[in-house]
Sequence to fold (244 residues):
Amino acid sequence: MGSYSNIFMDDVLTFPQPSFQLFQVFNTYGLMGNAALLHRYGFTELDNPYDIVNIDLDLVLEWSSSLFSGRHSRSRLSLWRKLGYSGCVSQNSEYFEISFDGNPQLELLILLYTVLLSEEDYMRLDLVLATSSNDGESTTAYSPKTGNFLLGEISEMSRDMLLTKSVCEALLSLADMRDSLYGTSSLDDDIKSLKKSNSITERKLYHSLVLRISERRIIKKLRTYTEESSNSLKGLHSRKRLKS
Fold:
């Protein structure tokens, strides 16, 4: 009898040329979150580390419009785009991802920071962009008091500068708005419903609850992430006051 060889495939099964060997075939679904698994294959996995939560740009604009005028929201969004930023795009929808650990996408933090800029800093930053694009002159004299780092390349290392008190408050508001889309039942209610459901006889209900619970847990982690960032900011300000 011939020896076994292992072949791993993703979605499309391809076989080698016929030979005298016996091949053991494995199929993998790839590194997918539960939303993709449920949509493509009709099942989910408990505690899937590839799960994410999307926060639509429209939801961010709804939050902004609840605090500021429509003109303010549109102008800040325009400035954010002038700075070269955008969210993820799928089927004509723009959104931001929250990772399994509850970390918000960097572009979301930059947008929130931009929306919350003072009118003075917004005008100066907008002038910097307009001046630099028109004649290429040095724009140091026009740099805003805060937010001038937005003019450079922003990396993950810049998160601490972006996570101001106001941005943290915005993230918590967005977490509440996103969670409200699940209706009046709580996360604990959903967990109880999952325990009562049968993965065989109530397949659709079971897997939809797994996805729902996973997403709501990520939103909970986003709140924790934000609260910890806010507490770190308070501690930093307290140390500065003590030194002064």
